[in-house]
Amino acid sequence: MASNPTSAPVLFDRALLRTRLDRAQRNGPATFLLDRIREDFDDRLQAVTRSFADVADIWTPGDLLRKPLAGRFRSIVRVDADASEILPLQPESLDLAVSALALQFVNDLPGVLAQIRRTLKPDGLLLAAMIGGDTLTELRQSFAAAEAECEGGVSPRVAPFADLRDIGGLLQRAGLALPVTDVDRVVVRYDSAFALMADIRRMGASNILIERRRAPTRRTTMLRMAQIYGERFADADGRIRATFDVIWLSGWAPHESQPKPLRPGSAKASLEAAVKQAKRA
To answer: In the 8-state DSSP scheme, what is residue 207?
Structure first.
């Protein structure tokens, strides 16, 4: 049977993701990013004047909707991450869909956003936070340099992350109105690259790429990676920096009450006239 050329490439082993998340919960998760997102999420949602009754939390590793915020809603459905990317939600059943630290591990992000759009009632809101941009760029560069030096080649170590501009386009492609995206850059300092990698494991976020290297990394490569990391990305006190870019995204299911863009040619004044007026002023 011929392959479907329009299907999304499978980059992530989502069954392994579920295993890693479960292990992180058992061993004591690292929650500093989720805690920050939860606080920011509360502020963003409080700024929305619209009321929400039926809500779904999609794949968040942990508890995003805690009391007293959860008291605003009539019902909350939690969708746990699994190997599937099919959302078990009915069309037009939600006023609000939320997600934190999950969408970066989706193989078919356009498809998932389209599914979320279908689950929203008219004027329903998607509010999510995902890892993207230059997240873990220091670790990526250090591993690449160490492997090239010690092993003569580079293997996939850190997942590719979506760019802010790409996310805005995907929201529009999914049919969401009034899309908004922004980035919260978080720089965390560690005693060593190994302490950073321990936190990544405690987030359940270690390498789940399908094309990941399966053989254990050589000890000499790991030590050289940590040395390069310290040489390139350490502060004066010797502690290293790790970048996490949290991309916030929101969009609304279309509704007649929402602002509409002006039709081409309907503006009351031209840009040329506005520029001339500014020069006279």
So the answer is: -
